[in-house]
């Protein structure tokens, strides 16, 4: 199983405790890494793979989204791979950063009629896959990424978050 070194920064109020976020992140990201390594034959370096998770708010993620993507609005999750990779490539020892906005996650969870923790779990998996080069810009890419998310979430005991929806493009 891939060894992970997850660094967490809680940068806004309203999130669960750092200990709770660490436990959840290790469980969710660990399951995603294990699935990628076993089922997708994703290579991992022999040393621990490092990534950082930033638990933020809408104001901060809006600034980041505007600066890096030219979209002046909050979003649920942003991923920043440390190095460009394609699915199946060997990543470097530093995967990158995942930034998540609490208010957007809360709002979406209510709209989707899902518990906050389940939606956050989905977004952690989604952000993690982006660090491995998975994307959803084209329909075929979206179907592949969403299929992976669904299978990983099933391993975590969660239902298909895309059931009844067209792929995200």
UniProtKB/TrEMBL annotation:
Coiled coil: none
Protein's UniProt keywords contain Translocase: no
Residue sites binding Zn(2+) per the record: 126, 130, 136
Chief subcellular location: cytoplasm
InterPro entries, per database record: MetalPrtase_cat_dom_sf_prd, YbeY, YbeY_CS
UniProt EC number: 3.1.-.-
Keywords on record: Cytoplasm, Endonuclease, Hydrolase, Metal-binding, Nuclease, Ribosome biogenesis, rRNA processing, Zinc
N-terminal signal peptide: none
Family to which this protein belongs: Belongs to the endoribonuclease YbeY family.
PANTHER family from the UniProt entry: ENDORIBONUCLEASE YBEY, CHLOROPLASTIC
Protein name: Endoribonuclease YbeY
Species of the source: Rhizobium oryzicola
């Amino acid at each position: 199983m891939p060894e992970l070194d997850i660094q967490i920064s809680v940068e806004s109020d309203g999130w669960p405790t750092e200990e709770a976020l660490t436990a959840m992140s290790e469980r969710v990201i660990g399951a995603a890494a294990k699935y990628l390594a076993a089922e997708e034959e994703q290579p991992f370096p022999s040393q621990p793979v490092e990534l950082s998770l930033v638990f933020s708010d809408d104001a901060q993620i809006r600034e980041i989204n505007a600066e890096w993507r030219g979209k002046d609005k909050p979003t649920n999750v942003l991923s920043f791979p440390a190095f460009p990779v394609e699915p199946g490539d060997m990543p470097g020892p530093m995967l990158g950063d995942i930034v998540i906005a609490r208010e957007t996650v809360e709002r979406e969870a209510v709209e989707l009629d899902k518990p906050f923790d389940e939606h956050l779990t989905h977004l952690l998996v989604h952000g993690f896959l982006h660090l491995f080069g998975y994307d959803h810009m084209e329909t075929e890419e979206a179907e592949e990424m969403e299929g992976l998310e669904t299978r990983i979430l099933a391993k975590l005991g969660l239902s298909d978050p895309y059931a009844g929806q067209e792929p995200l493009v």
